[in-house]
Specification:
Elements: E1 9-13, H1 17-28, E2 32-37, H2 45-50, E3 54-57, H3 62-66, E4 70-73, H4 82-89, E5 94-96, H5 97-102, E6 108-113, H6 118-131, E7 135-140, E8 157-162, H7 165-168, E9 178-181, H8 195-203, E10 214-218, H9 222-228, E11 234-238, E12 247-251, E13 254-258, E14 263-268, H10 278-293, H11 297-306, E15 315-320, E16 323-327, H12 334-341, E17 348-353, H13 365-371, E18 375-378, H14 382-389, E19 395-397, H15 401-412, E20 417-420, H16 433-452
Parallel strand pairs: 1-2, 1-4, 2-3, 4-5, 6-8, 6-9, 7-8, 9-10, 10-11, 16-20, 17-18, 17-20, 18-19
Antiparallel strand pairs: 12-13, 13-14, 15-16
Helix pairs in contact: 6-10, 6-11, 15-16
Length: 453
C-alpha cells in the first residue's frame, strides 16, 4: 500500500528550504499541515497560507507536536528538542524531510554522504549522468530539497542527493540504490553527543540497502571501511592511494575502473581542473557512480572537463600582484581545513576561526608548520587556535573578516596564498558559510580594485 497523508495532521518543524518544500508537498498531498518555526515572521507566509498551511511562528508549542499524526524535521532542528521528544513519547512518528520525500519517489536514489566533499561529489555525479543522457535531479542538502523533486520523479529518473548526518539520523525506509560514503572524521560535535553518534548517523545511509544495491566506499579511510562492513549492498571501492586491487584507482594518468577481467579508462587526469588533491577523491567517487549507472567514459570526461568546482569549495578568487586568494568557506571542520592546507606547498596564510564544532585542532600543527608563513584567526575560536597552534607558527588575530583579509594579504606578499579555510561554523559572525565566502570575495575584490587603482 502506498504512503498517504490524506487528511492527516502533519507538523513540519523548521521553515528553511527543506521545511518549506516538505510543507508544500504535504499540503498538495492532502495533509492538514502546520509549519512551526522559531522566527516571528516568514517572507513566504502569504504563499503558505494560500496553500492551506497553518503557521506557528515565534517558537514550537508542545501540543502542535503531540497532537500530530506525523512530525517532519528539517535538518536544522535538533531531534532532542523537548517538543520533538514529547511527540515521540506520545507515539507520533518523527521523520526527516528526505525520508518523507523518498516515500513518493518513482526513480532511483543515489545518496552521497561524508564529512568533506559531499557537495562537489553530488554536483559532479549529476553532471556526469546528465552528460550521459540520463534524466537526473540533483539536490538534498544542497540545491533543491528532495521534497521539491517529487513532482518531477519518473521511473527512469536518477535522484542524486547530498545527505547530512542530521538528515540521515531521522530516516526509516530511505533506500538508496547507490550509497556513497566519502570519508568520516569528527564534525558537528556541537550537535551530536560524540564522534560515535555522528558516525552512526552517517552509516544509516546503508541500512536499507540489499544485495542488488551498491555501496561506494573510500578504501583509503579506515572509518569508512569499518562503517561499511554492516552494509548488505555490493561494495565498490575507490582509492586515490592505490591500496586496492579491484575498484576505481589511478593508473598511468587516468582514473580507471579495474575489474578482474578488464581495466576500463574512465577520466584522464588532464580533464580535472580542481584545486587540491583531495578533490580528486570526489571525482573518483563520482566516476564510480557513473560506471555503475552505465555512463560512457567520454560523457564522464566531458562533465569533469567542464566542471571548475563549486562556489566556496577551494574556489580560486583572484591573483593580486602575485598573491593568490582561495575561498574554501565550506571547510567548516578540522578535517576539511586540513585537506585545504595540504593542497599548498609553501607561503600559505590561512584565515581560520568562527564557531568551533569540535575536533582536534592540533592535527593542523605539522602541516601548518611546513607550509604556512602565519595564520590569521577570527571569531569565537581565536583563543582555541592560539592555544593549539601558537607555538608552531605566528597566530595573529583580527576582529573582522575584512581586517583578516587585509592582514593576510600583507603577510602573504610577495607570492603567497591567502586561504579561507575556517575549520569552524560561521554562525558567530555570518548566517552561513556562503555569506562568509561572499564577504571574503568582496574583500578580495576591494583589495584588487585598490591595487589596480
Amino acid at each position: 500500500m502506498s504512503f498517504s497523508v490524506e487528511g492527516k495532521r502533519v507538523t513540519v518543524a523548521g521553515a528553511a528550504r527543506s521545511g518549506l518544500a516538505a510543507a508544500e508537498l504535504l499540503a498538495r498531498r492532502g495533509a492538514r499541515v502546520t509549519l512551526s518555526d522559531s522566527r516571528a515572521e516568514l517572507p513566504e507566509a502569504d504563499r503558505l497560507r494560500g496553500l492551506g498551511i497553518m503557521l506557528e511562528l515565534g517558537g514550537h508549542t508542545r501540543d502542535t507536536f503531540t497532537s500530530a499524526d506525523l512530525v517532519v524535521l528539517s535538518p536544522g532542528v535538533p531531534p532532542e528538542q523537548d517538543v520533538v521528544q514529547a511527540a515521540r513519547d506520545r507515539g507520533v512518528p518523527v521523520i526527516a524531510e528526505i525520508e518523507l520525500a523518498s516515500r513518493w519517489l518513482q526513480g532511483r536514489l543515489i545518496a552521497i554522504t561524508g564529512t568533506k566533499g559531499k557537495s562537489t561529489t553530488t554536483a559532479l555525479t549529476g553532471l556526469m549522468l546528465e552528460a550521459a543522457g540520463f534524466k537526473v535531479t540533483v539536490g538534498g542538502n544542497i540545491g533543491s530539497p528532495l521534497s521539491a523533486q517529487v513532482s518531477r520523479s519518473t521511473p527512469d529518473t536518477f535522484h542524486v542527493v547530498e545527505t547530512s548526518s542530521f538528515q540521515l539520523e531521522q530516516i526509516d525506509t530511505f533506500h538508496p540504490w547507490i550509497a556513497v560514503m566519502l570519508n568520516v572524521s569528527p564534525d558537528h560535535l556541537d550537535r551530536h553527543p560524540g564522534v560515535e553518534a555522528y558516525a552512526a548517523a552517517k552509516a544509516r545511509i546503508f541500512e536499507n540497502q540489499n544485495a542488488s544495491d551498491f555501496a561506494v566506499i573510500n578504501a583509503d579511510d579506515p572509518a569508512v571501511l569499518e562503517l561499511a562492513r554492516r552494509s548488505r549492498a555490493t561494495a565498490r571501492q575507490f582509492s586515490l592511494a592505490g591500496t586496492i586491487n579491484l575498484g576505481t584507482v589511478v593508473q598511468e594518468g587516468w582514473i580507471v575502473d579495474r575489474q578482474r577481467d578488464r581495466t576500463e579508462r574512465l577520466v584522464p587526469f588532464g580533464a580535472i581542473h580542481l584545486l587540491g588533491r583531495h578533490l580528486v577523491n570526489d571525482v573518483m567517487a563520482a566516476a564510480t557512480v557513473g560506471a555503475i549507472a552505465g555512463a560512457a567514459p567520454a560523457a564522464m570526461t566531458a562533465a569533469v572537463d567542464a566542471f571548475h568546482g563549486l562556489e566556496h569549495a577551494m574556489e580560486f578568487v583572484a591573483d593580486v600582484g602575485g598573491v593568490r586568494f582561495v575561498n574554501d568557506s565550506k571547510a567548516t571542520n578540522v578535517e576539511s581545513a586540513l585537506r585545504s592546507i595540504e593542497s599548498f606547498d609553501r607561503d600559505l596564510v590561512p584565515i581560520m576561526g568562527g564557531r568551533f564544532k569540535g575536533g582536534d585542532l592540533r592535527v593542523l600543527r605539522d602541516p601548518l608548520k611546513a607550509r604556512a608563513k602565519a595564520l590569521v584567526a577570527v571569531g569565537d575560536a581565536r583563543p582555541l587556535l592560539r592555544e593549539a597552534l601558537g607555538d608552531v607558527l605566528d597566530v595573529q588575530e583580527a576582529d573582522s573578516l575584512a581586517a583578516a583579509v587585509s592582514r593576510a594579504h600583507e603577510l602573504a606578499k610577495p607570492s603567497g596564498v591567502v586561504l579561507l579555510a575556517p575549520a569552524c561554523a560561521s554562525f558567530d559572525m555570518f548566517s552561513d558559510y556562503a555569506e562568509r565566502g561572499r564577504r571574503f570575495k568582496e574583500e578580495v575584490e576591494r583589495i584588487r580594485a585598490m591595487a589596480d587603482g
